[in-house]
Amino acid sequence: MFNIRGWAEIEGIRLNTMEIENLVSGTPEKIPRLGGEFFIAWDGCCARDRYGIMPGGCEPGTVICNGEVVSHIRPDPGDMDLEAAIVTSVALRTDEDAACALSGGVDSSLVAALAKKPCVAIGMVGSHDLRQARRAAELLGVPCDYELIRTRDVAEALGEVVPKIPVVNPVEVSIAVCQYFVSRWAGRHGYHRVLAGQGADELFGGYARYHDEKDPDSLRERDVASLGLQAERDQSVAALHNVCFSFPYIDVRVVRAAMALPGSSLVRSGVRKYPLREVAGRHIPLEIAMYDKKAMQYGSGIWKAIRELARQNGYKKAVQDYINQFGWR
Question: Which end of the chain, C or N, has fewer beta carbons within 10 A?
């Protein structure tokens, strides 16, 4: 019996469900060439996308038949420069049931500008991200909904999120709660896929630690290696609303183009993610391309709300202890 979650492509040509079914049954030698975000199961076999973006019952980048690894997913769409890679990646992920998460930073704004799809921004009342997303949506000319989150919404979300995610600590939980509200909005509005900017910080040196790092290439390799676990976190939360996340930056073309850049080029004159901002400046206003935005858990106000909830519940200095209790329910 054939089943697929997600989507697949070969060398920039997106395949429909029937084409994928015909490929795995008739020309299985082409399976290792599949790009996209997918988990495919058929006749005792399964295959999962190169980076493990789509959850499934086999290891990322493998083809397994009757319990044995028979080949590996290694798509080779050809080398592209960074701009062409990002444009192609977004185009492949843009269809009728897709929306975009928008926080107003360069990562999400570039994706939103290229995708030209409805957007959603989430945040507590008066939060930085809601203000910045509104400004970005106006400048980009994209439609955007603004989802106001209340403290009691955060408390309710924790009960659903904490038992589902692979790593439970304050950072991971606060990010997962943000993704919970994004995917909840998408599910309520009939979208099945949300394009998001994850992966940009890891590929392009978006973290503050890159400022003084003496070996940025090794640091970037370690950061990129964490992307699979991040995807598991986000997809676990999205599944609560029958939605999945799609990550244009975690595409073989983009990863290849980004990793070809020397680590020394990621920060220029104190500006992190410089190569990405340079590309973005050709598609979105420089005001947004060069904007240095806080991480989503801080800019949305979600982290502050979790910390306040911990205090209200008697955990004045131990947010970890507060969130741990939600895993016991």
Answer: N
- Answer yes or no: do 274 and 144 share one domain: yes
Helix (H, G, I), strand (E, B) or coil at 58: coil
Whole-prediction pTM: 0.94
CA 109 to chain centre: 13
Q: How far apart are CA 153 and CA 76, in angstroms?
A: 44
In a domain, 77, yes or no: no
Specify whether the CB–CB gap between 160 and 240 falls below 8 A.
yes
Give the three-state DSSP class for 61: coil
Count of CB atoms situated within 10 Å of the CB of 274: 18
174 and 42 housed in the same domain:
no
Q: Please report the beta strands in 89-226, taking only residues with DSSP state E, as ranges in sequence order.
A: 98-101, 119-124, 144-149, 193-195
Provide the domain limits for residue 235.
82-302
The string of pLDDT tens digits covering residues 119-174 is 999 999 999 999 999 999 999 999 999 999 999 999 999 999 999 999 999 999 99
Q: Determine how many CB atoms are found less than 10 A away from the CB of residue 214.
A: 7
Q: Which of 12, 41, 72 is the last residue of a domain?
A: 72
Q: What is the total count of domains within the chain?
A: 2
